[in-house]
Design a protein that fits this description.
Order of helices and strands: HEHEHEHHEHEHH
Shape: globular
Distance between the termini: 51 Å
Helix content: 40-55%
Number of domains: 1
Radius of gyration: 17 Å
CATH superfamily: HUPs
CATH architecture: 3-Layer(aba) Sandwich
Low-confidence stretches: none
């Protein structure tokens, strides 16, 4: 089990073949740095599974953006996706709706999307699965890897350690977003994070007498 970024890099450099990786992706900006880092070592397929995203039009917008981004950078990266099912998200976070960002609500959301990824990776005979979620400074990387290794054991499919904000990964994703003119959303994705973002913006306006 890999537990830190340095050992993750050592693993990449030690690979003597190109494993098949199913990479869960939440959006094009978060995926940009991660894909460019991993495509040198893995045959990547993107798995877009994000029932948390609200509204459905936003889900489709982010899916289109990541699909177009992958076409720009490589002919070899495929994008597959789940059908949108908001009920799965609502059931997963039931009771935690008002807990706020970086809370158990988010833990349950990570788990929902990563478990769907692990199942799909097992079904399609991938060598590894992982997620782009850890590139965000707003996500709890410890939880992401904890969930990943639990799913590795549950489904007997290798989990690739994830901490893609390291080595200025988040900043690089911002630069890549500018370079490729990527749509960069201003909230995580769910209706609760959208509400919290709007409430924060309203407080700032009030403080600034706007």
């Amino acid at each position: 089990m890999i537990e830190n970024y340095n050992d993750f890099i050592k693993l990449l450099k030690s690979l003597d073949y190109r494993p098949k990786l199913l990479l869960h992706a939440c959006c094009a900006p978060c995926s940009s740095h991660t894909i460019l880092l991993l495509k040198e070592y893995f045959d990547i397929t993107i798995f877009y599974s994000n029932d948390n995203i609200y509204p459905e039009a936003e889900y489709q917008k982010r899916l289109n953006e990541i699909t177009n981004f992958c076409k720009k950078i490589s002919d070899d990266i495929k994008v597959i996706y789940d059908e949108y099912n908001e009920d799965d998200f609502n059931n997963a976070i039931k009771g935690y709706e008002n807990f706020g960002e970086r809370s158990l609500r988010c833990y349950q959301c990570y788990n929902l999307r990563m478990e769907k990824t692990a199942k799909k990776a097992k079904e399609l005979n991938f060598d590894y699965f992982t997620t782009t979620l850890s590139i965000s400074p707003y996500k709890v990387t410890k939880w992401i890897n904890e969930i990943g290794y639990m799913l590795e054991e549950k489904y007997n499919i290798k989990y690739l350690f994830s901490d893609f904000k390291k080595e200025n990964g988040y900043q690089h994703s911002i630069e890549l977003s500018q370079k490729y003119c990527l749509y960069r959303q201003n909230y995580c994705g769910c209706k609760y994070s959208l509400r919290e973002r709007n409430e924060k913006d309203d407080r700032i306006k009030e403080e600034n007498n706007c």
